[in-house]
Design brief:
11-stranded mixed sheet; alpha/beta; binds magnesium ion; DHBP synthase; binds adenosine monophosphate; Rossmann fold
């Protein structure tokens, strides 16, 4: 298939919307990462998204809407909490999980009786949804398992020839995927951390917001006992949402956690060791408090280092005490296959 390259002009977005209406696949920019969109109410179109990405079919998609009223097509009721976060954070990088209406295909929700919904902030994304006249199901526009695409060229690298069109809209502002907030239980629970943090949501709702236990379980792994020295961890995630390989660069990746100076030293030492063996190492070291910059840069850095053909990626850990740091570390740990040492 020939992939059409489109701009964010109104004319091009209308052309893209026509493709969506006919059941085709269009990659488009959002403020988080590029999405691979299809008509969320069209089972065949949604099936084609899984096919193009090579995505396991039990991993549900986020449904994107352009106006709050469109929630009514997807869910039977909008709770007080849902209304509050929609009002406070939409359009923006927050996805909410709510009960689904029977009309929403099982294929879109991976067989669940709930649906994840978000209203993106990027105008091109909202225009695409509006012009298409349907909610758009869109996972990240990459091959399943590889780092999420934050630039049009990352989409092309993975999906050229596999999708109908890509709207090229420049860099994504945020750089990591949306916060996913489950509102179907007794208390609001974060299933995936993002740039909108638990504290911000908690403030908007006037009640505590919990993290899904699997997130903390994974994060606790960064706290390897320093007394045991630099030990390498082999973490086998238990919860189903964590079973798939995610965000992985082609190179082997190792995260180093600890005091900033010692991390830098250890990275230098390992880099030299790698080079002494005739191999190449790439380094990812973010500024200590620059969490948003780290979110913006992580996936593109991983893709660029792969492009340079490095054998090993050495990355400095971020503080997980910060909500955004926690969200970036969630991606970094998956990228590295939970391969982390503490110095
Ligand atoms: P992606 O499309 O790659 O950004 O991933 C979508 C994320 O939203 C995945 O982590 C899904 O597990 C999650 N998600 C989507 N729909 C639901 C749902 N109905 N219930 C729980 N999680 C969901
Ligand atoms: Mg993804």
């Amino acid at each position: 298939m020939n992939t059409l390259h489109l701009t964010t002009s109104a004319e091009d977005i209308r052309q893209a919307a026509e493709i969506i209406r006919k059941g085709g696949l269009v990659a488009f920019p959002t403020e988080t990462v590029y999405g691979l969109g299809a008509d969320a109410m069209n089972t065949k179109a949604v099936a084609a998204v899984y096919e193009a990405k090579g995505r396991p079919s039990d991993n549900p998609m986020i449904v994107h809407i352009a106006a709050a009223e469109e929630m009514r097509r997807l869910t039977p009721e909008i709770s007080e909490d849902a209304a509050a976060v929609m009002d406070r954070f939409w359009p923006g990088p927050l996805t909410i999980v709510v009960k689904k209406k029977p009309e929403v295909p099982d294929r879109t929700t991976g067989g669940l009786d709930t649906v994840a919904v978000r209203m993106p902030e990027t105008p091109a994304a909202r225009d695409l949804i509006r012009f298409s006249g349907c909610p758009i199901a869109a996972p990240s526009a990459n091959l399943s398992g590889s780092p999420s695409p934050t630039r049009a060229k990352d989409v092309t690298a993975d999906l050229e020839g596999r999708i109908d069109a890509v709207i090229e809209g420049g860099d994504c502002r945020v750089g990591i995927e949306s916060t996913v907030l489950d509102l179907t239980g007794d208390a609001p629970v974060i299933l995936r951390p993002g740039i909108i943090t638990a504290d911000e949501i908690s403030e908007a709702l006037g009640k505590p917001v919990l993290y899904d236990s699997s997130l903390k379980e994974a994060a606790s792994h960064t706290a390897l006992d320093p007394a045991k020295g630099a030990q390498e961890a082999d973490f086998r995630p238990k919860s189903p949402g964590m079973k798939y390989k995610h965000y992985a660069p082609k190179a082997e990746m190792l995260i180093i956690s600890g005091d900033a100076d010692r991390v830098r030293e250890e990275i230098g030492r390992r880099k030299r060791e790698c080079e002494a063996q005739g191999k190449r190492a790439g380094v990812i070291l973010f500024g200590e408090q620059e969490f948003r910059q780290a979110a913006h840069d992580l996936f593109s850095r991983l893709r660029d280092l792969d492009g340079e053909g490095v054998d090993l990626i050495l990355a400095g850990a971020l503080s997980e005490a910060d909500g955004v740091g926690f969200a970036v570390m969630n991606r970094m740990l998956k990228s590295a296959g939970y391969h982390i040492i503490r110095v």
